[in-house]
Amino acid sequence: MVPAPRTGPSARSQKRLRQDVMGGDVRFKRRVERAYGAETPGLEVWLELSGKLVANDILPTRLRDANMRHVSTTAVEMRALIGDKIFGAALLEEMVATELVTDTGEATRQYSLVASNSAMAQFVSQVLPAHVAGGRVVEEHSAGTLIEAAVYMVNQMPGGPQAVRQLARWFVYNVVVHGRLQGEIANPKGLILELNGMTSAERVPGTPDHLAQFVGRCIWPADNPVRETKAIGRSKTAAAAAAAKEMLELYGHEIHNAPPQEPAKEKEKKDAKLANAFGHLLTLGGIIVGGDAVLISEPGDPPRFVATMRYGNEEARAEASTKSDAKRNASRQLLELIGEYDD
Q1: Any domain includes 70
Q2: Which of 75, 143, 169, 343 could be stapled to 121 by a disulfide with Cβ–Cβ 3.0 to 4.6 Å?
Q3: Domain shared by 101 and 193, yes or no
Q4: Which residues constitute the domain of residue 173?
Q5: Among the three residues 233, 256, 279, which one is the final residue of a domain in this structure?
Q6: Residues 6 or more apart in contact with residue 14 via CB below 8 angstroms
Q7: Are 289 and 221 found together in one domain?
Q8: Where are the beta strands (DSSP E) in 78-234?
Q9: How many CA within 13 A on the CB side of residue 42?
């Protein structure tokens, strides 16, 4: 049987929209407090080691001579290629270790934001002040190449891996944490697609190659649209993202309150999660404390078992007349606590 076409946003995507525009939910704020406390992460080790780098080892060609075409030297590009993987792993490890992301979808969405060239362009003068003096504006691709090449070089130094981890922690705090607490929307184009919207972009006629401009268009919903926004960008991706961001900012409340897609199917999926709560929690990485449910009733009394489930730093405990029910009930409580059953 062919599934019915989508008629609205999914409940999960509406939840993500609500969390982004409201500055994150309570659980996210608790995780931030546990991971960072009241102090903003510093950059002392990173700044000390990166300040020793030689400009020729990390500067893209465009930053050396503005009249040269936009190509970096092969050596710098290769360092940046490896540095991108090193820094990317450090960013993901920071987000996962601090429990700022709780599933692969959220991790992917936040990673696309924190590892983007636009984020690096925003902070390059702060993380490499010895090489980008006076808050100089650096275009996005060159900023990414510069930081990634620097990561590669610093990682080779004594104490370098620690400095790279410090840089990753600083970036995650200033991009993911600060952005979400301020209500900034991560990956607006991806989110609008999940919300059953659509984006497109095309070049503005007559704009020269070196100053090309694109107009992005966003509609919602994708079928029979009732809302449309447009925005200008220097690339198709930037223009489409800007149009999606404007759609979410202008009409996010309307989209959030739209009837969810296939509510019966969503309920069916939630019911399945409830029925298999223990297995679902184990799949997410949860554990049962002590290895199994424990018999707590006295000899001769009706059997009574207690189970304690743990996920990260959160725990839930439940009692029941069978081991399986005790484990299922404790798992349900914990899944509810970490937001798996949120609408």
Answers
A1: yes
A2: 143
A3: no
A4: 23-182
A5: 256
A6: 195, 255, 256, 258, 260, 343
A7: no
A8: 198-203, 214-220, 227-233
A9: 5
Token pair for residue 116? 């983007």
pTM of the model: 0.56
What does the pLDDT read at residue 16? 59
Instruction: Supply the angle between the helices 74-97 and 160-171 in degrees, to the nearest 10.
Output: 70
Judge whether 4 lies within some domain. Answer: no
Q: Determine the pLDDT at residue 247.
A: 92
Amino acid code (one letter) for 262: E
Torsion on CA atoms 111, 27, 328, 280, rounded to nearest 10: -10
Tell me whether the omega of the peptide bond preceding residue 221 falls within 30 degrees of 0, making it cis.
yes
Q: Which residue numbers in the chain have pLDDT < 50?
A: 1-5, 21-23, 66-71
According to the model, what pLDDT value does residue 172 have? Answer: 93
Q: What whole-number distance in Å separates Cα of residue 92 and Cα of residue 114?
A: 10
Cα angle: 156, vertex 170, 14; to 5 degrees: 125
| Number of compact structural domains in the chain | 3
Task: Report the C-alpha gap between 204 and 266 in whole angstroms.
Answer: 41
Q: Is residue 86 part of a domain?
A: yes
> How confident is the model at residue 23, as a pLDDT?
46
Has residue 285 been placed in a domain? yes
Looking up residue 140, the CATH number of its domain turns out to be 1.10.1520
Local structure of residue 41 (DSSP, 8 states): P
Report whether 102 contacts 339 (CB < 8 A): yes
